[in-house]
Design a protein that fits this description.
The protein is mainly β and about 300 residues long. The chain has two domains: about 1-185, TolB, C-terminal domain (Neuraminidase), CATH 2.120.10; about 185-295, no CATH class. It is built from three helices and 19 strands. A four-stranded antiparallel beta sheet has the order 1-2-3-4, with no helix packed on it. It has a four-stranded antiparallel beta sheet with strand order 5-6-7-8, with no helix packed on it. The protein has a four-stranded antiparallel beta sheet with strand order 9-10-11-12, with no helix packed on it. A hairpin with a 4-residue loop joins strand 5 and strand 6. The longest helix is centred in the N-terminal third of the chain and has 5 residues, at about 95-100. The chain is globular, with a radius of gyration of 19 Å. It starts with a strand and ends in a 7-residue tail after the last helix.
Length: about 300
């Protein structure tokens, strides 16, 4: 789920039905109606998973969406899931004004695509302009940056999504987890990632928390100065391991064991949902706790 903080709307992922639903909220944060007001990717009428044609309107197996309240755009990835992993990131203009022009059961069209050269191409790949599978998107609204967990290529890609610069199939401006935009091997250490998935962002401090397949959450300072450096951005903290070169299975139930992530950037709390454990772990991620440390629990 993700929120439109300007127009008080909730976007809910319907993974199995290959769509996102839009709910208008009241002043108390509750839906005005029991049903969704608009669907993205598929009509609100009908249900059930099926593969759609590759175009600017339909979605297949979407997830990991993030909303830019400044320019009223939704960024979400979908995944064909047939054959070699392949995916794309679609960008939708979901301003109330734009949606008001749509007819009954008419779906919004994406205004741009990332990770593929056009709306009809769906090929696996890596490099500066391709992604290998569906992942999580996070928008930095202030700097107009998009972060994406490119799981199959063991990295996080960063795009400049300023409306003046956004183009179909454009190159990412930076990479996290790899030394360059052409490398894709699983990695360990301060600057390595292995099949990252969950991700949350602290816009106040420019800290990016990335769930890593090495049984840890890596914490990166993604300020402008750090993103511009070459050779691989280094994490300044790791949650779940005793140091940056360890990847041992969880030794304590107080350690990170994988799962979804949520962040309270006011009170400095990281929430890790464990599907298998039927629980949510809460980590103290205050600057004093993270600064100069490689582990927090």
């Amino acid at each position: 789920m993700t929120l439109d903080k300007v127009n008080n709307r909730l976007f809910v992922e319907h993974h199995g039905n290959s769509r996102y639903d839009i709910y208008q909220l009241d002043d108390n944060g509750l839906p005005l109606r029991r049903h969704a007001d608009q669907g993205i990717g598929r009509s609100l009428i009908g249900r059930g998973f099926s593969f759609a044609p590759m175009n600017a309107t339909a979605l297949t197996n979407p997830g990991g969406g993030s909303f830019d309240s400044v320019h009223q755009r939704m960024f979400l990835s979908d995944d064909l899931s047939l054959g070699p992993p392949a995916a794309r990131i679609l960008v939708f203009d979901l301003s109330p004004e734009t949606l008001s022009f749509l007819g009954r059961n008419e779906l919004p069209q994406a205004i741009a695509v990332l990770g593929q050269p056009d709306f009809e191409t769906y090929e696996p790949g890596s490099g500066p302009a391709k992604i290998g599978g569906r992942g999580t998107t996070v928008v930095d609204e202030e700097r107009q940056l998009l972060f994406f967990t490119d799981r199959e290529n063991n990295r996080v890609l960063v795009w400049d999504i300023d409306p003046r610069h956004l183009m179909n199939g454009m190159d990412a401006m930076a990479v996290i987890g790899q030394p360059n935009l052409h490398s894709r091997e699983p990695r360990i250490g301060r600057s390595g990632l292995t099949r990252p998935n969950a991700m949350v962002y602290d816009p106040r401090r420019k800290h990016l928390f990335v769930g890593d397949g090495n049984n840890r959450v890596m914490v990166f300072d993604v300020s402008d100065r750090n993103l511009s450096q070459e050779g691989g951005l280094e994490a300044f903290a790791a949650i779940g391991q005793s140091d940056f070169d360890s990847r041992v299975p969880r030794e304590s139930l107080r350690k990170y064991g994988g799962g979804s992530l949520g962040l309270d950037d006011v009170y400095h709390r990281l929430f890790a949902g464990e599907f298998a454990g039927n629980r949510v772990l809460v980590f103290d991620v205050s600057p004093a706790r993270l600064e100069g440390a490689s582990n927090s629990s």
